[in-house]
Design a protein that fits this description.
heterodimer; A: alpha/beta; Elastase, domain 1; Neutral Protease, domain 2; 11 helices; globular; B: 86 residues; 19% strand
Chain lengths: 360, 86
């Protein structure tokens, strides 16, 4: 849910601070960026301080933002081949390895994803308030999918002919948890362009979780989503490719990757909630382009720009690609400077995929 | 990724054809078609596009798996199993 997170924004519209952050002199920009960014530190400090506070606030506690002090609270349930998401709890936080691969992969993957969001963005779980990470494995009968149901991540075992179990893929786990973060921060409606942005944010998060875990640079990353879930007989690298949308798979049984890499090939359809998994290829490729243009670690370059754009009060629940592009350019300017290499790279990424954005 | 299944009851053995007709009769296709598309919650759920030609009428239904009634899931399961057997 969108809400007024900072009383300062209630008095001054974010647009005024954003304008100062872009157009002011160095001192003015630093103040405005600090005011906009203080929101995040304040929220994190509030969570931390709520845990340590006894009868009253500790002196100076509200000024603190302690990274890395929080831990995940993982709960893994076994659906045992049914569609019951409230099955037996088979592994809780700090409990030992069970020997069930799906259980242990889900447990580890949720932990890696939690660590990414906390280490990189100072975020305490999906809702930034310590929400338990609920995973359900062995869902359904040969169920070839994984999904976020609004409260938990659910993983099937695959059919063994086309798909393997979904917990094999860390970026899939990061993708599903990413939907929870997007729901919490932006509530992007799961239809049309806003839905494709929702899907793209999850692919961004999933890919960054994988890169962060592997310590990869943007140049070293595969930029593939779900490269561990096809069975060996399927002619495909992955479910999707952020580097080359449309080229992830081409197989007589499952068909060809339908993703476009440019707005000229945008797919108008009523299927797939207006093509949310199809047209996500466009913002995916924009992010890949920005990340590789900037070089280095994607979670330090393009990642924070995209994350802050997701959190921007200017991002509506039905935002279009163009609206999101505009916000990412503004965020890059706020964080790095009006004519910075970062702002130019963001503009270039959207230009590459045919989405209009303000030129820095 | 799309997975497609198609059944022509005139090409089935009588017991199988009767089973499909029974499963379809359990559905209120007119109501589902009228309310289509029926979207669910969450993300990355399966979505089904069902087209039924029966008694001179056609019904097109688009529905997310989490809001699909049990009778529809039963029909879909039969279609998947039938294709696997073939």
């Amino acid at each position: 849910m969108k809400h007024c997170r900072n009383p300062l924004h209630c008095i001054l519209p974010p647009s005024i601070l954003e304008s100062i952050a872009v157009n002011g002199d160095a001192e003015q920009r630093a103040w405005a960026v600090g005011a906009l960014g203080r929101d995040h530190a304040i929220r994190l400090a509030r969570v931390e301080n709520a845990k340590v506070r006894g009868d009253g606030p500790r002196e100076g506690a509200d000024a603190l933002a302690v990274r890395g002090a929080v831990k995940p609270n993982r709960v893994i349930r076994d659906a045992a081949g049914t569609e019951n998401v409230n099955g037996e709890v088979v592994r809780r936080e700090r409990q030992k390895v069970t020997g069930d691969k799906a259980v242990d992969e889900a447990y580890k993957g949720l932990g890696d994803t939690f660590a990414f969001f906390n280490d990189v963005f100072g975020r305490n779980s999906i809702d930034d308030a310590g929400m338990p990470l609920r995973g359900v494995v062995h869902f359904g009968d040969r169920y070839a999918n994984a999904f976020w149901d609004g409260r938990r991540m659910v993983f099937g075992d695959g059919d063994g002919q086309i798909f393997r179990r979904m917990t094999r893929s860390l970026d899939v786990i990061g993708h599903e948890l990413g939907h929870g973060v997007t729901e919490d921060e932006a509530g992007l409606e799961y239809f049309g362009q806003s839905g494709a942005l929702n899907e793209s944010m999850s692919d961004v998060f999933g890919s960054l979780v994988e890169q962060h875990k592997q310590g990869q640079t943007a140049a070293e990353a595969s930029w593939l989503i779900g490269n561990e879930v096809w069975t060996p007989g399927i002619k495909g690298d992955a479910l999707r490719s952020m580097k080359a949308p449309g080229e992830a798979y081409d197989d007589p049984l499952v068909g060809k990757d339908p993703q476009p890499a440019h707005m000229k090939k945008y797919v108008e359809t009523n299927q797939d909630n207006g093509g949310v998994h199809i047209n996500s290829g466009i913002p995916n490729h924009a992010f890949y382009t920005v990340a590789t243009t900037l070089g280095g670690r994607s979670w330090e370059g393009a990642g924070p720009i995209w994350f802050e754009a997701l959190r921007s009060p200017a991002l509506g629940t039905r935002s279009s690609f163009q609206r999101f592009a505009e916000i990412t350019v503004r965020v890059a300017q706020q964080l790095h400077g009006s004519a910075s290499a970062e702002a130019k790279a963001v503009f270039g990424g959207w230009e590459k995929v045919g989405v209009p954005a303000p030129k820095p | 990724m799309n997975v497609t299944r198609s059944i022509d009851t005139s090409a089935l053995e009588a017991p199988q054809a009767h089973e499909v007709e029974r499963l379809i009769s359990e559905l209120d296709l007119a109501d589902l078609a009228r309310r289509s598309p029926l979207r669910g919650g969450g993300a990355d759920r399966f979505q089904y596009d069902l087209s039924v030609q029966a008694e001179g009428r056609r019904y097109d239904v688009t529905i997310a798996e989490d809001v699909a009634p049990p009778e529809l899931k039963e029909l879909l399961a039969w279609m998947l199993q039938h294709d696997a057997a073939a």
